[in-house]
Write a structure and sequence with these properties.
alpha+beta; 4-stranded antiparallel β-sheet; 7 helices; 4 strands
Length: 191
Amino acid sequence: VKAGDAADALCIQYLEEENDSKASWGNNLNFQQWKDIQKIYDTYVSSMVSSKTASTIMSNAFLKELSNDMNEQGRKFNFLCGHDTTIASSLCALDSETFDIPNSITSVVPMGTKLVFNKFKNAQGEEYGNISLVYQTVDQLRHRLALNLDNPPQECQINIKGLTKNQDGLYKWSDIQEKIRQVIALGDSLS
């Protein structure tokens, strides 16, 4: 735990300090070296959330709230906050496939990540959706670059094992909801 906490503190310093020399206390670490330091924290987070059982229990309250919000009629937007471990445990519990995090020093969940569930309705009234992680790149964080249409956040699509996407890369919305219900039911039976 101590090594994970130290690595997390060092990497937060890197992400908050624009000056490379100051961020590394004069050691002038390169991007790969920062990724190597971040791996220590990533290993710590992964050890907490890599167990399907532990992740299901850890994410249960968050997924219940998410499910309630997703089923709220007339809602156009929902915003729930959670820590990186909440997002990581939710993705593990939902059985996400392995994914890459471009333009980040982490391989788990970047600082300030948003777990986004997009819902779409076609002309026939059928509902579809996708799941993605949306986050600021290392450069956007370190240089405090405003996010806008010319400088959008990074997005990483999440694939869920056992769910089938259509030709547009979207899941049936009912399949996403059912997957979440199954994980909640399993979490309730484990706690």
